[in-house]
Amino acid sequence: MRTICEARVLDIWDLHLTEHTGLLPHFERLVASNTVPSLDDLISHGDKLVSRYMSTNAYRTALSASRVERAPPLYRFPTGCAWESESTSEPIPPSIPRTSASDAIDGDVPQPPRPTSAPETGQASEAEFKVHVEEKGFTGDRVLANSILFCRDFLLWLELSYAVADGDIGRVVEILKLWIFAFAGASKPNYTTILLEMYCLFRYESSKKFKDAIWNNWLVNITGELGKWIEDGLLQEHYNKWLEDMVAKHGGTFDDPFFRSTISPNVDFFLRLKEELETAFELCSRGKTHTSSSLSDVIHILMRIYREDQLHYFRTGRSMGFAALDLINIGFLTLSNGKLAAFLSSSTKHAKLLALFRRIRTLAPTETEDPTAAMNEIISALDMELDVDEEMYETECRRTEPSEPAGEADWQFHLDEESGQWESFDDNTGDVDEEWENDNDPDIEVDEWAGENDNI
Predict the structure, then answer these.
(1) Of 158, 164, 143, which Cα lies nearest the Cα of 5?
(2) Which helix (H) or strand (E) holds 236?
(3) For 326-365, what is each residue's pLDDT tens digit?
(4) Residue 326: Cβ within 10 Å count
(5) Alpha carbon of 87 to those of 20, 84, 211, 319: distances in Å?
(6) Residue 449 has what pLDDT?
(7) Which residues contact 23 (CB under 8 A, 6 or more apart)?
(8) Which pLDDT does position 422 carry in this prediction?
(9) Fewest beta carbons less than 10 Å away: which of 18, 209, 344, 434?
(10) Contact in structure between 196 and 180 (CB atoms under 8 Å)
(11) CB 197, CB 347: distance < 8 Å
């Protein structure tokens, strides 16, 4: 994927600077004449090319000839030769399912192709996707639009990988913000929810010190070298792999004190011990990476194909049976049409529940005051303030079975003469609530529950 993206970027530069007469000979002539442009000039050209070939506006422009004509010079593509569809002489067989642009979202984005069901035998088979067919009168260039979306989305991933290697957590977070919409558009609700919760945590809930503490520990660099940063979770997975191998070879379990207190805290040292011994005895170290063959020939072949097919020219009506999805736009529409509201509603209910339990903790009974009135006051407040699922309300707030009608159970406390501690019991049954029988902390169960569920 990276090679394909690099070849397309080079083809765009070749078209922009030389009109496909050769990028390498062009710069050789500039060197010979001592007229090589400055880095600032190249960056200025690069900004224009990103807007023209790697942006959402460029994608929308490529889907309509009228938009290309009305577009400012920044988004105007060079015009290629006329496109003649290869399917005119051999139409697509009717047995192949089709999609049309009438199924589009917002008029431009086609619905995702859905794979057919697997055979009844249970054996896995490759998904058969629908062939995209443009609606009658389509004047855009679907192939060019697909290439624009590919470059835009892949370069976001490439920017994230560079940011991680550089240890720049700010750039990482900016990419993750965009991926909220991309995951929503790709129908990945779990990833969408995780990123939404992360954004809300940093934007609305955490203090600056708490946010900085998380950001400063998301990426680690145990080598001290530039460009060697990795995710802290990935580093832990590397260590876990080595520990699992060691446990399998030498016996024992992860719970053994020797592994927990000696081996685990010094994993990095043991992994580097061999290199240290080789250096101490001036032995030649063996590399742990495999060299790959040069990809320059592959890139030259791809650039030739793109040049011959005029990939980055605008050719009216060009379409080859596939329409890429603008996941960011689809995700925006998905969140706007109810998914974001559902997330906010769920998060707000859990936040209310936790806030009320914190209020209960602040009113924990002491040895000198009867807490019954205070607890009943909180329960009354729950009826008015808490708008959550009835089962969760009764189970967690009233400590009753879900089948009991709300309001039957009542909190009562009495002072145990032997222990000198307040105990709670059900006013209707007289049974002592064992969860409240804790030394010096009659509210410990509520405290533990809230602490374990603060991240809901």
Answers:
(1) 158
(2) helix 232-250
(3) 999 999 999 999 999 999 888 887 777 777 777 666 655 5
(4) 26
(5) 28, 9, 56, 10
(6) 37
(7) 10, 13, 14, 17
(8) 47
(9) 209
(10) yes
(11) yes
